[in-house]
Amino acid sequence: MTTNGHTYTLKVWRQPGADRPGRLATYTVTGISPDLSLLEALDVLNEDLIRKGEDPIAFESDCREGICGQCGIVVNGVAHGSKLGCTTCEIRMREFAPGSTITLEPFRATAFPIIKDLVINRSAFDRIIARGGYVSINTGAAPEANAIPVARDLAEKAMDAAACIGCGACVAACPNASASLFVGAKVSQLAVMPQGHAERERRVTRMVAQMDAEGFGNCSNHGECEAVCPKEIPIHVISRMRREYIRASVKSVLG
Amino acid sequence: MGGVLGGCSTSSIGKKILSAITGLGMVLFVVGHLAGNLTLLLGAEAFNNYAHFLKHLMHGAFIYIAEAGLLLFFFTHIWMGVTVWLHKGRAREEGYEVAGNAGGESKKSLSSLTMILSGISLAIFVVIHLLHFKFGPAEAQGYLTTIDGQPARDLYRLVIEEFHKPLPTIAYVAFMLFLGLHLRHGFWSAFQSLGVGSPRLTPAINTAALILALVLAIGFLALPVYVYFGVDIPAATRVVALEVGP
Ligand code: FES
User: Fold this and answer.
1) C-alpha distances in Å from residue A209, one per residue of A56, A80, A174, A204, A247
2) Which residue has its alpha carbon closest to ligand 1 atom 3?
3) Where are the alpha helices (DSSP H) in chain A?
4) d(C-alpha B214, C-alpha B204), whole Å
5) How far does the centroid of ligand 1 lie from the alpha carbon of residue A90, in Å?
6) If you count residue pairs, one on A and one on B, with CB atoms under 8 Å apart, how many are there?
7) Predicted confidence (pLDDT) per residue in A162-207, tens digit
8) Fewer CB atoms < 10 Å away: N or C end of chain A?
9) Low-confidence ranges of chain B (pLDDT < 70)
10) Are B47 and B159 within 8 A, CB to CB?
């Protein structure tokens, strides 16, 4: 450990298991280089804890470069921290004033039960995807790329929505714990593409029903989700999901 | 209708759609109400004539139809709002120790976070307001005037008298600030809930919500203030009242 780094106070949510009570524990980390990422600072702290024979802090990460969506911590009250368009793993220690206190809490929602410390179970998202976040196609020989022409602006729109990495920050940041930005993104990326049209109505109806069944809250249009989204997915995907939903409802009544 | 309401109210999107439609309906009413109130500026005759006109429109049927519709909208809106609010507690049972704001494109604001409080305040206001004026003292209590030679309620004098009392005046001003607070988020949010949102539309609707909230709040609270400081209690009608009164 270098000696010329900074000292920080970390307040971390410690919870031994899903049904066990949790609390914020306070740790002091020293010698932290400003070039370390926040997760690396946690690694440093964990090595320290292991050396002392204590239970290391459980947190998730995989790619550590903002593409997998595994990492997700509420940093000082903001999901993925206050830097816009970033995941938790992209936060560097230089963003915090030396000597400052950093509070780390798990993404909180009843639909995302805490497994341990900062690790949550996001399989509710998987179950929503399983209800329609796909297109049913016969696999086999790869289709000819230009067989279905797609206008460039539509392709762009679909790509913007498809940037979602399913991290769950939208849920964590929503005052109502709604999953509307996630579901909106997944509905929108397929709704604008010709390939998605075959299952269009059934997709939105089923995915919304599953979202509700999982116990996510209602969307009150606070728009906090858009601000924390590491991929900066706009809330317009939510209005598109609602249009799709209205369209599907009207169609189911009129046949 | 009940079936459709029940069906819509079970899905999260349906709830917001109902909330939006009833909310926008009431906004329309409130705009009309403010326009009507402005006749107060033209004096006793104009205001009383306007009230008389509304009461007798379509042989008196209009007011009942409008009231039935408003009542339905009012209670549906409250029902949706309260369910959404209750659900929020279930969807996140344990809150955050540290509260933060992400900033950026977020539209989270004092207005958006206090919808339930401003909403409840407005519901209370509506009850007080109706007791005050609609079910308040009328011809029998001496608030009598004549329109086209026929006896009619002197609503003008009642309004002017009420807004010469400090407490009702202050309360009305406060409640109208809640109206502005509620509409700041509610108006743009209603469009978003109905699926009307796009990179080009949303900023415009959001600005429109701010302007509408300001215009309606200031418009409504300016009248009591104006009456308090600038309008005398009408003497002529007081004489009429004395003659007819007990
Ligand atoms: S670890 Fe993959 S996005 Fe953060």
Assistant:
1) 38, 28, 19, 8, 15
2) A66
3) 38-51, 123-130, 152-162, 169-173, 180-191, 200-213, 224-228, 236-254
4) 15
5) 8
6) 157
7) 999 999 999 999 999 999 999 999 999 999 999 899 999 999 999 9
8) C
9) 1-9, 235-246
10) yes
pLDDT for the residue numbered B9 = 64
The owner of tokens 């999982």 is A214
Q: Chain A: give the shortest CA distance to residue B84, in Å.
A: 6
Give the model's pLDDT for residue B75: 97
Alpha-carbon dihedral of residues B74, B75, B80, B81, nearest 10 degrees?
A: 60
Q: Are B177 and B217 in contact (CB under 8 A)?
A: yes
A154 forms bridges with which residues in the sheet?
A: none
Structural domains in chain A plus CATH codes: 6-105 (3.10.20.30), 123-254 (1.10.1060.10)
Domain segments of chain B: what residues?
Answer: 2-244
For the record, the structure tokens of B191 come out as 């469009």
Cβ-Cβ contacts under 8 Å for A73 (sequence gap 6 or more): A38, A59, A79, A80, A81, A88, A104, A105, A106, A107, A118
Residue A10 and residue A104: Cα distance in Å, rounded?
A: 7
- The CB-side HSE value for A137 (13 A sphere, CA atoms) comes to 12
Supply the pLDDT for residue B239. Answer: 43
- Within chain A, which residues score under 50 in pLDDT? 1-2
Closest Cα in chain B to A84: B104
CB contact under 8 A, A219 and B16: yes
Does A37 sit in the ligand 1 pocket, CB within 6 Å?
no
Rounded to whole angstroms, what are the CA distances from B106 to A180, A188, A237, B11?
15, 20, 15, 25
Q: Helix, strand, coil proportions of chain B in percent (round to 5)?
A: 80, 5, 20
* Chain A (94-123) residues lying within 8 Å, Cβ to Cβ, of chain B: 103, 105, 108-111
Predicted local distance difference test score (pLDDT) of residue B3: 45
Residue A98 has what pLDDT? 95
Per CATH, the number for B2-244 is 1.20.1300
CA distances from A73 to A23, A25, A58, A162, B235 (A): 15, 15, 11, 22, 69
- State the pLDDT at residue A255: 74
Residue A142 has a pLDDT of 80
Contact at CB, A245 and B13, closer than 8 angstroms: yes
Question: What pLDDT is stored for residue B151 in this prediction?
Answer: 85
DSSP string, A62-73: SSSSSSS-----
pLDDT of A3: 57
Task: Select from A37, A42, A64, A228 the residue to mutate for testing ligand 1; criterion: most ligand atoms less than 8 Å from CB.
Answer: A64
Pocket probe mutation, ligand 1, options A37, A43, A62, max atoms within 8 Å of Cβ = A62
